Each structure stands twice: as structure tokens, then as C-alpha cells.
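look at this:
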Amino acid sequence: MVCKFCNINPVFRFNSSNISLCKKCFIKYFERKVLKTMRLYKLVKKNDNIAIAASGGKDSTVILYILNTFIKDRTVKLQAIAIDEGIHDYRNKSLEFLKNFCKKNNIKLNIYSYKKEFGKSLDEILKTYKGIPCSICGVLRRYLLNKKSKELGVNKLVTGHNLDDESQSVFMNYSRNTLKLSSRMGPITGIKIHKNFIQRVKPLYFMSEKEVTTYAFLKGLLTKFSECPNDTDSYRAQVRDLLNDLEAKYEGSKNGLISSFLEILPLLKEKYKSLPEIKTCKVCDEPCSQEICQACKYVEEVIKNNKVNVNL
């Protein structure tokens, strides 16, 4: 089997179509598909002030590289935001890589930590918190990304979510009967624009994790990958393994799941467009659905231990 276009040794094979691509052709294919997604969904527009949610991992590094390389419009501003959760022997290493990458590519990098913003690192929080680590970490991370993006004057936050990530979220919302959450998903998140929410966009939406990993290696962006040590017990991790097993037996299952989801997404957005009015947290003024946002509840009940940890 040789590359479909060059007749030389391939580096990547699409089993479902029996097509193989060499290094040069795969890179061209990957970049064209990402840029097509950006054009089709108008993910980047003139005068955008964009921040990339960067971690030093493969997905965010790939999209950080592509945006920095291919966006030629000088009216578009680009910078990176990283959250230091405080995970020993994991986040410190990825952030060191990210600092060097951004310095080399002349990208402004903004780093915010749980320790400074909330008073404790995630490692310290987990010494007393007995719930699932991803639950509290995800809430605090999303909170900081939205809040700090607004402080930086950003109007759009780019994330590195890929096809695998999105298929997991879709499956989780189906299985939990939380279709209202699915209505906010897609290449552009949210049902409607709100001044207190920074719009999130996903240029890697149609790229599989395997494709992203291959591109990162071929371009020399990363030489090794590591996973968060707190990820193993999460529900998402179990769904990920389930979908990976399904994909191994029936290639194209994830693509099929996302394609069918995008067909019904307009119906979901129409159904849930009249959501209750968004409130602002009495403690921090960030948007929320209740009187106090979940992040502030975690800070008070888990980090500061001011009252019993219930209903979390």
C-alpha cells in the first residue's frame, strides 16, 4: 500500500476508505480540513481578539500552531491562556513546554493558577475533597477561562476539542438525558451570544484524536504525550474507552455519531432557545443559573471548608 497521491511509503491509513497518505500529503490533508472547518463555520472573523485555551498538550498545541501559522489577517489578535491547576509532575512539565513554544513562536502567554485565584492547588484540594477530581477541576477551569478571557478583552476562546472529545460529550448527554446541554455544543458553543459568556470555537471539531496525534508528531510539535493522573476514574474516561472499543470494531462510529448529532443540533437549539434568564453570581458576578455559581460554592464549601460539602 502506497500514498494515494504520491505512490510513496504512507504514514497514515484510513481503514474505512482504504486510503493511505504519505507525510507530506497527510499534513496537507489535515491543515486543509481544519481551515475548511474554520471557513465553513466562520470561526475566525475580521477584528477578532482570540485566546487559545492552551495546556501544552497535543490538541491545544496543534491548534495554537495552525492559527499562528495560517491566520494572516493583521486585524486578528492572538494570544494563549493557560490554567495551572497545580498537579505535581504533570502540569508543571506541560507548562514549561508551553512557555518555550510560545516564546519561540512569539505568542503572548497568560498563565493563571488555582493556588493564586482560589487559595489552593488541585493537589491540595484533593487531599480533603472526596468527589471525582474532574468534577471540581472542570468547574474551576471553565470559570477561570471565561473570567480571565473577559479581563483580557477577548471576544472568542479557541479550544482544542477534537472529534473524540465531542463524540464523548454527545454520548454522555444522551445517556444522562441532558439534551439541553447538547444544544449548546457544536463547532461554535452556545445557543445565543451573551455578553458575560466568551464564545468558544473548536477548529479541530472534525479531526480525530488519532489524526491530531499523528499531525503533532509529524510536525515535530511534541515528542511525547502524558495524560492527567486524575482522569482514570471519571465517567468521561469510561465513555472514551467504550467509544474507542466501538470504533476499533466498526470504524467510522464516532464520525457517524457526530454527523447525526449535527443534523439534529438546529432542532435542539430551537427547542432550548428560550432558556431562563441568565443570572449573575452574588459573590463573583460571573454568569450562572442559580444565586451563587458552582465555582464559588466549591471555593466556600470545599476549599475554605466553611460549611458541610453537600449537593456537589
